[in-house]
Amino acid sequence: MCHNHDNLKSNNKDLQEVEKQMNRRNFLTKTSMGLGAIALGSLLNAENAFASIKGKKLDASDSDNLLKSYNKNRLGLPHHLPKATRIVYLFQSGGPSQLDMWDYKPKLKSMFGQELPDSVRQGQRLTAMSAEQTTFPMAPSVFNFKQHGKSGIWASELLPHTSEVVDDLCFIKSMQTDQINHDPAITFMQTGNQLPGRPSIGSWLSYGFGSDNNNLPTFITLITKNMGGQPLYSRLWGNGFLPTEHQGVQFRSGKDPVLYLSNPENYDGNDRRKMLDYLGQLNSLQYDAYGDPEINARMAQYEMAFRMQTSVPDVTDMSDEPDYIFDMYGDDSRDPGTYAANCLMARKLLEKGVKFVQLYHQGWDQHVGCPGGLKNQNKLTDQANAALIKDLKQRGMLEDTLVVWGGEFGRTVYSQGELTETNYGRDHHPKAFTMWMAGAGVKPGHVHGQTDDFGYNVVKDPVHVHDFHATLMHLCGVDHERLVFKHQGRRYRLTDVHGNVVKDLLT
After folding, report:
1. Which helix (H) or strand (E) holds 486?
2. Radius of gyration, alpha carbons of the chain
3. N or C: which end of the chain has fewer CB within 10 A?
4. How many helices (H) and strands (E) does the chain have?
5. pLDDT of res. 58
6. Are the C-beta atoms of 174 and 435 separated by less than 8 Å?
7. What integer pLDDT is reported at residue 259 of this predicted model?
């Protein structure tokens, strides 16, 4: 390969002759991919634009003028004035029990142990874990619920901290998914398709908007350390068929937040810049010869890694955070890699211009011992969730930061396994579960949708995963039907061929 590069470099006449002989298709492919290699662009002046609208109700002309103040990138984004310029997605892997946390069903108290009526279950699909059960006794939550805030939103005693910020949250109590098992359900929630290989949400936004900070990735993933549960795979934050520079970069706890970023022992790195420049020249020749866009994508990754060697140690250094911030997030926030520490890290990354931060927290799969498992999980997450909302709000960042909380599905009202007055298990339930959002452009203190008295079926305003994705993209200034990528002859999008913006969620 190097010999071929030398020939190309030393014999310009031959190279020119090859280019003259290129057919129309190769010419168009080469030039379009060359444009694609140009920096993806970002929403310039977004901060100033949002500063001008704080506290002001916009009319149509205001919105049009502000949209014109954006320098649209190569994809013509944003399609409309965005409310969210960054997102933090708090993914609770395993399926949190909505019935024990948010979806209060007082009538169930008198139905303890009674069989779930066939008219309610309607022959819906069961998992292999409960398919052999001959009885489906209902298990009311053992936890007390109260109304909180001016909005009067119900929350269980498991959530003393998040209950304090319910007036900032927008609840969807009518979420629905097509998948009943973890792997396809998580993949569906993160990529819009149950099968591996599609780009994740963060990758779509990275592809669409590019970066606001050239020294950090557009899309960063954090995973709570030392948590058991359903496995997580890097494809969940993968780029799929999009160029590889749009893959999420996982930050880990410890001295090496990003693998292979630190210099090898006894290497000072002084010649790294010169090495990358020479490598760039070689890759430029290879690109001119073959027109493969992944050549430029790989070089973009090399350059990002070079810049991250300086930027990552700075952004992951928590020593400048005051004690009152650690106290707000909880004692765990001083321990890198915990959920609380990752929530604090997410805020720092958002401040540095990272557009999409994805947190994963495992352990919400309570097939048995549901009450005890939920107590443990909320001890690890409740205070940090509330602190992140408060922290973003006090810094003026919640106005244009979208916070998302939720899992891949909910849990059943009937008990899996033995039912007692103090203990029960809950199986997977895709037909009705709860998520919440906060911040940029969503209604605060609002509840959307409703389930039946058993928390089993949606009876009002269902929201499908594709609808959720369409709404999320809309908040970012994207028409979900127009952000597409052609792959193997077909135009793909995050919402596949489905999805509608849920306007009732929007301010």
Report:
1. strand 485-487
2. 25
3. N
4. 15, 17
5. 54
6. no
7. 80
Q: How many domains does the chain have?
A: 2
| Residue type (1 letter), 252 | R
Task: Give me the count of residues in the chain.
Answer: 507
Pair (301, 334) in one structural domain: no
Question: Are residues 416 and 302 part of one domain?
Answer: no
Does residue 37 register a pLDDT over 70? no
pLDDT of residue 62: 64
CA distance 210 to 215: 12
DSSP 55-114: T----HHHHHHHHHHS---TT---SS--S-SEEEEEEETT---HHHHT---GGGGGGTTP
The answer on 233 and 250 residing in a single domain is yes
Residue 52 inside a domain? The answer is no
Would you state the pLDDT for residue 479?
98
- Name the least confident of 65-74, 148-157, 278-287: 65-74
DSSP string for residues in 246-282: GS-EEE-SSS-SSTT-SPPTT---TTHHHHHHHHHHH
Count other C-beta atoms under 10 Å from residue 375's C-beta: 14
Going by the DSSP 8-state scheme, the letter that residue 319 receives in this structure is T
**What is the per-residue pLDDT across 126-137, written as a single tens digit (0 to 9) for each?**
999 999 999 999
Residues 376, 394: Cα–Cα separation, whole Å:
28
Alpha-helical (H) ranges within 370-506 are: 370-394, 465-475
Residue 360 lies in a domain: yes
Nearest-angstrom CA–CA distance, 241 and 231: 23
Query: Per mean pLDDT, which range of 64-78, 321-335, 392-406 is the poorest?
Result: 64-78
Tokens describing residue 92: 């609770």
